[in-house]
Amino acid sequence: MIDNDIYSGRSTTLDVMLDALSTYEVPEGADCRAVYGISADSRAVVPGSVFVAVRGVAVDGHTFIDKAIEAGATTVVCEELPAEIASDVTYIKVPDSREALGRLASRFFGDPSDELTLVGVTGTNGKTTIATLLYETARLRGLRAGLISTVANIVDGDSVPAEHTTPDPVHLNRLLRRMVDAGCTFASMEVSSHACDQHRIAGLTFAGGIFTNLTRDHMDYHKTVDAYLKAKKSFFDGLPATAFALSNADDRNGAVMLQNTVARRAFYSVRDVADFAVKVVEDRLDGMLLEIAGRQVETMFVGRFNASNLAAVYGACMLLGWPADEVMLAMSRLRPVTGRFQPFRSSDGVTAIVDYAHTPDALVNVLDTINEVAPDGSNVITVCGCGGNRDKGKRPLMARAAADRSDIVILTSDNPRNEKPEAILDDMLAGLDAAALSRTTVMADRRAAIRKAVEIALPGDIILIAGKGHETEQIIGDEVHHFDDSQEVTEAFVLKSNNKLI
Prior knowledge:
This protein is an alpha/beta fold.
């Protein structure tokens, strides 16, 4: 849906916007004309807009220049000038339209990140949890804060719909401007590899960056792990000297990420000595006791991967100069993020965990944690699938990770999109040997798979429902259906207790 109200009456002048660019050419000379909007989508152009022609994965914005002008664009930013030049339009030629879009969008909205203490979090797993917990910690300290994440965008407690991990530059800067206008002084945000590669964060001023880990993901886009790594590393390469760069010492790519940064470097760890080291003193199904900087804190989180997330949160808070006593108190009050190791318990003593784990490494981390805290004699039942139109290479790896760490596996659909669910499941089954296959059931219907897991679970057993986490929709073909794993397992528990589960 096109949001033509995004600009909310804002305006500036073209010369002010162009000051945000380091390199550009203006064939006919720039002017001081008023600018009332900026867009890379010709359908979202309002009269007096700057239209930025971006070369996308599927379409080239240069082919829509005429449509943008028809809609009222008075300035066109492009990498290649069109054959026909409109006399009443100013054309700005730039080497990289994507980067220009980010910088121009930031300037149009008054460079809102300059007025915030903005911390970005990148990595394969843990981004949502760390960004959200930083936001919650800031709020618990009494600060007005904002959050940009996969689960939710929040402006001082008010939710704003989230469509992408990192929004496009126009919506991103509009959101940051809303935070500033609401009195926010701090914001945390997820920074995806796509956002780095597509320069969606160009023009933003970060006070700090955090690296979580790097495992196979988004190969459908990046093609190679090296390209994926370089995309994330570019975030740290671009941090200013005034910022901090905090990395996971327990990840083999942790040091690589900070090789070329000019920001202040620091590391966190749950395994070894580091600037910010966290030790798991006690791990239970209902929480962990952690030791941080010689002090112990009881938390509501479970698992070593969450201990690592909390180490990153603590380290970032210290690097921001927040008082340690306030941060430790806040950490004891923090709660798990929706869809991230979120527990549900039935009346007969079965525990279900809903988690967003959708990569082999994330699935391994969650299942290792479950096995560490599972009662003796209990079964671990895993329900998982893989998305359609995405990296096929990880499908057998996901199935193998589930089978190696579960007593029973039920392979099912995630978001099949435009692939046949059976074809996706066949790709997953290719990762299993005869022994694993004997413990594996295939059910393409995700609701039926969840209900089957609940049906066979005995008191003390733990069910992991992995892959969708916080998501409340399932994409089948071109249709989007409501589907919430949390709701499904809760309903299955009720049906079982009433002897109505079939």
